[in-house]
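User: What would this chain look like folded?
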Amino acid sequence: MIMNNSLKAFILISLVLIASIAIMILPSFVTKGVSRIELNQELQLDLVLDEDNDIELVFFGYAGCSDICTPRLETISQWYTQLPLDLKNRLGLKFLDLSVPKDKKLPDSFAKAFHQDFKGVYLEPSLLRNYTKAFSVYFSPSLMNETEIDHTSHLYLAKRDKVNKKLRFIYTAYPYDFKQIQHDIQELLHEPIL
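Assistant: Here's the prediction, encoded as structure tokens.
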């Protein structure tokens, strides 16, 4: 029996939707109990650690994202507010926008809505691929709502060593283990500078 075109399209869309959902959910099951990945990957990116901070948390999302970005940035803000001043002075948070909004100031306004110290970064379309590739960020237009973007929700920790910038940890599980993150930051700040 030959399937008509609308049934084929429905099956194809269903398979793509299932695959997209699996890509977003599967890492949570695979990494259960493993909330972070440790690495020492050099970053050749201008917008990360481009200020005086020794350590920077990086989060990719888009301004207006209510399902993923808002709850995560809210919990990061609550944790950040309670940090000792000596850690806050050496730590930054960058929110890198995946959506290439028309208003280039929108990412920074969105980030600052969670905490005045947070910085939102507009990525030029020509740079977006370089940043998402370096951090292994998955994102695509949502199949459920064309105004939204499906994306990974990892939190990245980068450190400056003299002139080099390195990605040191990726926190994959949500809710984030802030005790572990704070411990990692303190350990990195006490590492000898190479």
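The beta strands are 36-43, 55-61, 91-97, 119-122, 139-141, 149-151, 155-161, 164-171. If you want, I can go into more detail on any region.
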